[in-house]
């Protein structure tokens, strides 16, 4: 019986330590997931901006080709 009562503070310490360890690692994993989600969102926004720039460049090239055609027809 004395052995069991001697183990009680040790067991409480082990349970407390396990809870602290779980809480800190779980928090770190959550932080990392949030960070990863934030990076993915920024990459998506950047890809959207790149697509917009590519469309603008295509429109500019088409406009230049159209104007070159008009100039060549006038000459």
Describe it.
This protein is an all-alpha fold and 75 residues long. Helix content is 97%, strand content 0%. It is built from one helix and no strands. It has one helix spanning 2-74. The chain is rod-shaped and about 110 Å long. The model has no long low-confidence stretch (mean pLDDT 82).
Can you summarize this structure?
97% of the residues lie in helices and 0% in strands. It is mainly α and 75 residues long.
Compile the SSE list and pairings.
Blueprint: H1 2-74
Q: What's the Cα radius of gyration?
A: 32 Å
Tally of contiguous helical segments: 1
**What sequence of helices (H) and strands (E) makes up the elements?**
H
Distance between the ends: 110 Å
What keyword list fits this structure?
75 residues, rod-shaped, 1 helix
């Amino acid at each position: 019986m004395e052995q069991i009562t001697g183990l009680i503070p040790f067991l409480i310490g082990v349970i407390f330590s396990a809870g602290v360890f779980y809480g800190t690692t779980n928090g770190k994993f959550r932080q990392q997931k949030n960070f990863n989600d934030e990076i993915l969102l920024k990459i998506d926004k950047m890809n959207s901006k790149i697509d917009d720039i590519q469309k603008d460049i295509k429109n500019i090239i088409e406009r230049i080709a159209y104007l070159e055609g008009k100039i060549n027809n006038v000459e």
